[in-house]
Amino acid sequence: MLEIIQAGGWLMVPILLCSVVAAAISVERLWTLQRKRILPKNLLAQTWNSLKQDEFDQQKTRELRAGSPLGHVFASGISNAKRGREIMKEAMEEATNQVNQDLERYLTALGIIASIAPLLGLLGTVVGMIDVFDNLMREGSGNANLLAGGISTALITTASGLSVAIPALMFHRFFLRRVDELVVEVEHESSKLADMVHGHHVEPVA
Question: DSSP state, 203?
Fold first, then answer.
Protein backbone atom coordinates (compact mmCIF):
# COMPACT_ATOMS: atom_id res chain seq x y z
CA MET A 1 0.00 0.00 0.00
CA LEU A 2 2.79 2.41 0.90
CA GLU A 3 4.49 1.67 -2.42
CA ILE A 4 1.30 2.51 -4.30
CA ILE A 5 0.95 5.79 -2.42
CA GLN A 6 4.55 6.71 -3.12
CA ALA A 7 4.16 5.76 -6.78
CA GLY A 8 1.12 7.98 -7.13
CA GLY A 9 3.07 11.10 -6.26
CA TRP A 10 2.27 14.11 -4.12
CA LEU A 11 -1.35 14.31 -5.31
CA MET A 12 -2.03 11.13 -3.37
CA VAL A 13 -1.80 13.24 -0.21
CA PRO A 14 -4.98 15.30 -0.81
CA ILE A 15 -6.74 12.17 -2.10
CA LEU A 16 -5.89 10.35 1.12
CA LEU A 17 -7.03 13.35 3.17
CA CYS A 18 -10.32 13.32 1.27
CA SER A 19 -10.74 9.62 2.04
CA VAL A 20 -10.14 10.19 5.77
CA VAL A 21 -12.59 13.11 5.94
CA ALA A 22 -15.23 11.23 3.93
CA ALA A 23 -14.90 8.19 6.19
CA ALA A 24 -15.16 10.34 9.33
CA ILE A 25 -18.26 12.14 8.05
CA SER A 26 -19.91 8.88 7.01
CA VAL A 27 -19.34 7.25 10.40
CA GLU A 28 -20.55 10.36 12.26
CA ARG A 29 -23.70 10.68 10.14
CA LEU A 30 -24.47 6.96 10.43
CA TRP A 31 -24.43 7.40 14.19
CA THR A 32 -26.30 10.71 14.26
CA LEU A 33 -29.02 9.83 11.75
CA GLN A 34 -30.28 6.78 13.57
CA ARG A 35 -34.06 6.88 13.66
CA LYS A 36 -34.24 6.26 17.40
CA ARG A 37 -32.05 9.32 18.03
CA ILE A 38 -34.16 11.60 15.83
CA LEU A 39 -37.61 10.14 16.52
CA PRO A 40 -37.63 8.51 19.97
CA LYS A 41 -40.28 5.82 20.25
CA ASN A 42 -43.57 6.90 21.87
CA LEU A 43 -42.38 10.50 22.34
CA LEU A 44 -45.68 11.82 20.98
CA ALA A 45 -47.70 9.73 23.43
CA GLN A 46 -45.46 10.68 26.35
CA THR A 47 -45.63 14.37 25.50
CA TRP A 48 -49.39 14.28 25.11
CA ASN A 49 -49.85 12.49 28.43
CA SER A 50 -47.67 15.06 30.19
CA LEU A 51 -49.70 17.87 28.63
CA LYS A 52 -53.00 16.30 29.69
CA GLN A 53 -51.73 15.94 33.25
CA ASP A 54 -50.48 19.53 33.19
CA GLU A 55 -46.94 18.41 34.01
CA PHE A 56 -45.19 20.76 31.63
CA ASP A 57 -43.09 23.54 33.10
CA GLN A 58 -39.98 25.35 31.87
CA GLN A 59 -37.68 22.58 33.09
CA LYS A 60 -39.75 19.89 31.38
CA THR A 61 -39.76 21.93 28.18
CA ARG A 62 -35.99 22.37 28.27
CA GLU A 63 -35.50 18.64 28.79
CA LEU A 64 -37.83 17.87 25.89
CA ARG A 65 -36.02 20.37 23.65
CA ALA A 66 -32.60 18.92 24.47
CA GLY A 67 -33.63 15.28 24.28
CA SER A 68 -33.95 14.82 20.51
CA PRO A 69 -34.65 16.73 17.28
CA LEU A 70 -38.33 15.70 17.47
CA GLY A 71 -38.43 16.86 21.09
CA HIS A 72 -36.95 20.19 19.99
CA VAL A 73 -39.81 20.62 17.51
CA PHE A 74 -42.42 19.60 20.09
CA ALA A 75 -41.00 22.02 22.65
CA SER A 76 -41.16 24.88 20.16
CA GLY A 77 -44.79 24.10 19.46
CA ILE A 78 -45.76 23.71 23.11
CA SER A 79 -44.13 27.04 23.96
CA ASN A 80 -46.46 28.70 21.44
CA ALA A 81 -49.53 26.51 21.93
CA LYS A 82 -51.57 29.17 23.74
CA ARG A 83 -51.19 31.54 20.79
CA GLY A 84 -53.36 29.37 18.56
CA ARG A 85 -52.99 26.40 16.28
CA GLU A 86 -51.52 28.30 13.31
CA ILE A 87 -48.87 30.04 15.42
CA MET A 88 -48.03 26.72 17.04
CA LYS A 89 -47.63 25.06 13.64
CA GLU A 90 -45.50 27.94 12.35
CA ALA A 91 -43.21 27.64 15.36
CA MET A 92 -42.84 23.91 14.76
CA GLU A 93 -42.18 24.48 11.05
CA GLU A 94 -39.36 26.88 11.91
CA ALA A 95 -37.94 24.35 14.37
CA THR A 96 -38.22 21.62 11.73
CA ASN A 97 -36.24 23.76 9.28
CA GLN A 98 -33.53 24.12 11.91
CA VAL A 99 -33.58 20.37 12.54
CA ASN A 100 -33.28 19.79 8.79
CA GLN A 101 -30.17 21.97 8.66
CA ASP A 102 -28.66 20.13 11.61
CA LEU A 103 -29.34 16.73 10.03
CA GLU A 104 -27.67 17.85 6.78
CA ARG A 105 -24.54 19.01 8.62
CA TYR A 106 -21.31 17.93 6.86
CA LEU A 107 -23.22 16.52 3.89
CA THR A 108 -22.14 19.44 1.70
CA ALA A 109 -18.52 18.62 2.50
CA LEU A 110 -19.16 14.96 1.64
CA GLY A 111 -20.66 15.97 -1.68
CA ILE A 112 -17.67 18.21 -2.44
CA ILE A 113 -15.30 15.32 -1.73
CA ALA A 114 -17.29 13.09 -4.07
CA SER A 115 -16.87 15.75 -6.78
CA ILE A 116 -13.22 16.71 -6.37
CA ALA A 117 -11.65 13.30 -5.61
CA PRO A 118 -11.86 12.05 -9.22
CA LEU A 119 -10.62 15.43 -10.45
CA LEU A 120 -7.59 15.18 -8.18
CA GLY A 121 -7.01 11.68 -9.54
CA LEU A 122 -7.27 12.92 -13.11
CA LEU A 123 -4.86 15.74 -12.36
CA GLY A 124 -2.40 13.22 -10.93
CA THR A 125 -2.68 11.15 -14.09
CA VAL A 126 -2.05 14.18 -16.30
CA VAL A 127 0.99 15.13 -14.24
CA GLY A 128 2.21 11.53 -14.40
CA MET A 129 1.76 11.39 -18.18
CA ILE A 130 3.73 14.59 -18.55
CA ASP A 131 6.57 12.91 -16.68
CA VAL A 132 6.26 9.83 -18.91
CA PHE A 133 6.59 11.85 -22.09
CA ASP A 134 9.40 13.86 -20.60
CA ASN A 135 11.26 10.62 -19.92
CA LEU A 136 10.55 9.43 -23.45
CA MET A 137 12.11 12.57 -24.82
CA ARG A 138 15.24 11.95 -22.76
CA GLU A 139 15.47 8.15 -22.98
CA GLY A 140 13.86 7.50 -26.34
CA SER A 141 10.99 5.15 -27.14
CA GLY A 142 13.03 1.95 -27.16
CA ASN A 143 12.37 1.07 -23.52
CA ALA A 144 8.87 -0.39 -23.48
CA ASN A 145 9.09 -1.31 -19.79
CA LEU A 146 9.81 2.30 -18.88
CA LEU A 147 6.81 3.46 -20.88
CA ALA A 148 4.44 0.85 -19.43
CA GLY A 149 5.65 1.43 -15.88
CA GLY A 150 5.27 5.20 -16.21
CA ILE A 151 1.72 4.94 -17.54
CA SER A 152 0.79 2.47 -14.78
CA THR A 153 2.12 4.84 -12.15
CA ALA A 154 0.28 7.77 -13.72
CA LEU A 155 -3.05 5.92 -13.56
CA ILE A 156 -2.73 5.14 -9.85
CA THR A 157 -4.10 8.55 -8.85
CA THR A 158 -7.15 8.18 -11.09
CA ALA A 159 -7.95 4.79 -9.58
CA SER A 160 -7.42 6.19 -6.08
CA GLY A 161 -9.59 9.24 -6.74
CA LEU A 162 -12.44 7.07 -8.04
CA SER A 163 -12.06 4.71 -5.08
CA VAL A 164 -12.70 7.67 -2.79
CA ALA A 165 -15.38 9.38 -4.89
CA ILE A 166 -17.66 6.39 -5.52
CA PRO A 167 -18.40 5.47 -1.87
CA ALA A 168 -18.50 9.17 -0.94
CA LEU A 169 -21.17 9.79 -3.57
CA MET A 170 -23.15 6.72 -2.49
CA PHE A 171 -23.12 7.78 1.16
CA HIS A 172 -23.99 11.37 0.22
CA ARG A 173 -27.09 10.28 -1.68
CA PHE A 174 -28.01 7.80 1.05
CA PHE A 175 -27.78 10.42 3.80
CA LEU A 176 -29.78 12.99 1.84
CA ARG A 177 -32.54 10.43 1.36
CA ARG A 178 -32.41 9.48 5.04
CA VAL A 179 -32.69 13.16 6.09
CA ASP A 180 -35.67 13.70 3.78
CA GLU A 181 -37.47 10.68 5.26
CA LEU A 182 -36.75 11.73 8.84
CA VAL A 183 -37.89 15.32 8.27
CA VAL A 184 -41.16 14.11 6.73
CA GLU A 185 -41.79 11.99 9.84
CA VAL A 186 -40.94 14.92 12.13
CA GLU A 187 -43.44 17.09 10.24
CA HIS A 188 -46.09 14.38 10.49
CA GLU A 189 -45.62 13.90 14.23
CA SER A 190 -45.61 17.65 14.92
CA SER A 191 -48.79 18.11 12.91
CA LYS A 192 -50.46 15.39 14.99
CA LEU A 193 -49.38 17.11 18.19
CA ALA A 194 -50.85 20.42 17.02
CA ASP A 195 -54.16 18.72 16.18
CA MET A 196 -54.25 16.97 19.54
CA VAL A 197 -53.49 20.12 21.52
CA HIS A 198 -56.17 22.11 19.73
CA GLY A 199 -58.95 19.58 20.05
CA HIS A 200 -59.01 17.68 16.79
CA HIS A 201 -59.13 14.44 18.78
CA VAL A 202 -56.18 12.76 17.11
CA GLU A 203 -55.05 9.97 19.40
CA PRO A 204 -51.34 9.49 20.06
CA VAL A 205 -49.70 6.34 18.80
CA ALA A 206 -49.06 3.95 21.69
Answer: P
